[in-house]
Write a structure and sequence with these properties.
Blueprint lengths: L1 E6 L4 E6 L2 H28 L2 H7 L1 H7 L13 H28 L1 H20 L4 H29 L5 H26 L5 H7 L2 H10 L7 H6 L3 H12 L5 H15 L4 H7 L4 H15 L3 H14 L4 H29 L1 H26 L11 H17 L2 H11 L6 H30 L2 H20 L11 H4 L14
Antiparallel strand pairs: 1-2
């Protein structure tokens, strides 16, 4: 199927077809999102399982079943939260290492390493006999997540033709949602089994094996090949993935960018000291900051815990989580098909507005009906909260979920792309660690008011997108500065020299 990749506004065309090689490579690489999603979805369900708590956190198990225990504080335990959050501390370090490995050796071997780390972490968690082995496994999983999240979105952005770059990049987030959904279903099936938590944690080996085997069948990106001096191979791969002979214009564009990139000895120094790199640096890192403080990982990590806090039984809470995660996956499909039509900004603004309304409403309902001790008042309240959470999740799934990864992968020039994207991924990991480590403690102290905080954050980030983020739809990555940043009414001041 031929696609003339034409931006009418700018009058520049990169001839391309939607080829099988591009689709296959992007889907296989996006399995890195499946690994990430499985881990996000599995941890909350496992931490709510009685068998897991008895084996590793017996004091939390006792507190969970006390009748007069504060509803908001039943799971408040720093070590229990460290089980979830330790992965993201490891991910920060790993993504930094991956930024150098990806630049020096290519995107493909970095993706392979991601799958190997994740596989080893799954095996260690499966066989864990004590808390040390459990945390050690989480650290290895974090290395896999750091390598994968640093490299996969860049790989997809560099492989995809401009016209469908958004849709293919959203595949990463879509497979995150599939991983979350699969994990919640696995938790539901294993929750009543003896040592069911082992099967849940060990299941992480499945997406790791899929990515490891699949990575042998993907191409290296033309940009990485040309950047590392393999111009003939880069031209060959570019011709193959575009499905046309006339690739000179795109090849020359990439080659020009790589020549500029080679002049930069220290990408991180260049990123932080050169004025024209500040707009994408600020926007890329703030998008990841805002993505985590939408409150989404409150739902993804701790949905079973949250539903149990409201008085749902263990099975009911896990079923509610499966429903929520199913909505998450379905809503992401909308973004795949519409993000290259409607653009990035309108989805981000609409999603922030939708999440603001639902967070504020959930906070109000919990404030009115969930007291410090005793069951929630009103039999229909858990169902209403479930519906509101589904509406909230759908707003995230077609906006800040996929676009929080897509936009930072589009906006950096090649010479600082790995360094810039590392800053975005590191911000994601830091914020995810903060939410994972401290949410249950914050829930204990601030109770329903915590949802008002996340609601307010959604208003702030919607305004940020409205006034400061340029539209990146339909713009070749290597021309983002000329076409967007230099023409933005606020950021153009950084390019006047």
């Amino acid at each position: 199927m031929a696609v003339g990749v034409m931006n009418i506004e700018e009058g520049v065309s990169f001839p391309a077809k939607i080829t099988f090689q591009v689709i296959l490579s992007c889907i296989i690489a996006a399995v890195g999102g499946l690994m990430f999603g499985y881990d996000i979805g599995i941890s909350g369900g496992v931490t709510s399982m009685d068998t897991f708590l008895i084996d590793f956190f017996p004091h939390v198990y006792e507190k969970k079943h006390r009748t007069l225990e504060n509803n908001y504080c039943k799971f408040d335990d720093q070590l229990l939260q460290l089980f979830t959050s330790s992965l993201y501390l490891a991910g920060i370090f790993a993504s930094f290492v991956a930024s150098h490995v990806s630049k020096a050796y290519g995107r493909k071997p970095t993706i392979m390493l991601a799958s190997i780390f994740f596989l080893l972490g799954a095996i260690l968690n499966l066989s864990a006999r004590d808390l040390g082995m459990l945390i050690g496994g989480r650290i290895l999983l974090g290395c896999g997540i750091g390598f994968g999240n640093q490299t996969v979105p860049l790989f997809i952005s560099e492989m995809a033709p401009v016209k469908i770059r958004g849709g293919l990049s959203v595949m990463f987030q879509f497979l995150i949602t599939i991983g979350i959904l699969a994990a919640s279903y696995v938790n539901y099936l294993t929750s009543t089994l003896k040592n069911g938590w082992r099967y849940s944690l060990g299941g992480a080996a499945v997406p790791a094996l899929i990515l490891l085997i699949g990575s042998f069948f993907i191409h290296e990106t033309p940009t990485s090949l040309i950047e590392r001096g393999k111009e003939d191979k880069g031209k060959q791969v570019l011709r193959k993935i575009r499905g046309v002979e006339d690739i000179e214009l795109e090849f020359n564009e990439i080659k020009h960018a790589t020549e500029l990139s080679k002049k930069v000895r220290s990408p991180f120094k260049e990123l932080f000291t050169k004025r024209e790199n500040r707009p994408p640096l600020i926007c890329g890192t703030l998008l990841q900051f805002f993505q985590q403080f939408t409150g989404i990982n409150v739902v993804m990590f701790y949905a079973p815990v949250l539903f149990q806090t409201m008085g749902s039984g263990n099975n009911a809470s896990l079923i509610s989580t499966v429903v929520t995660n199913g909505v998450n996956a379905l809503a992401t499909i909308i973004s795949i098909f519409l993000v290259d039509i409607g653009g990035r900004k309108c989805f981000l603004i609409e999603g922030a507005s939708q999440m603001f309304v639902t967070q504020m409403t959930i906070g109000g309902i919990l404030h009115a009906h969930l007291k410090l001790v005793g069951p929630i008042t009103g039999h229909s309240v858990p169902l209403i909260v479930l519906i509101l959470i589904c509406v909230y999740v759908s707003g995230f799934a077609w906006s800040w979920g996929p676009l929080g990864w897509l936009v930072p992968s589009e906006i950096y020039s090649l010479e600082v792309r790995n360094a810039g994207y590392f800053c975005a991924v590191a911000m994601n990991m830091v914020c995810t660690f903060v939410v994972g480590q401290f949410f249950l403690s914050a829930l204990c102290r601030f109770r329903s008011y915590l949802f008002y905080f996340f609601g307010t954050m959604n208003i702030i980030m919607g305004l940020f997108v409205l006034f400061f983020l340029p539209e990146t739809k339909g713009v070749p990555i290597e021309e983002m500065a000329d076409r967007r940043w230099k023409k933005h009414r606020f950021w153009n001041r950084y390019f006047k020299d």
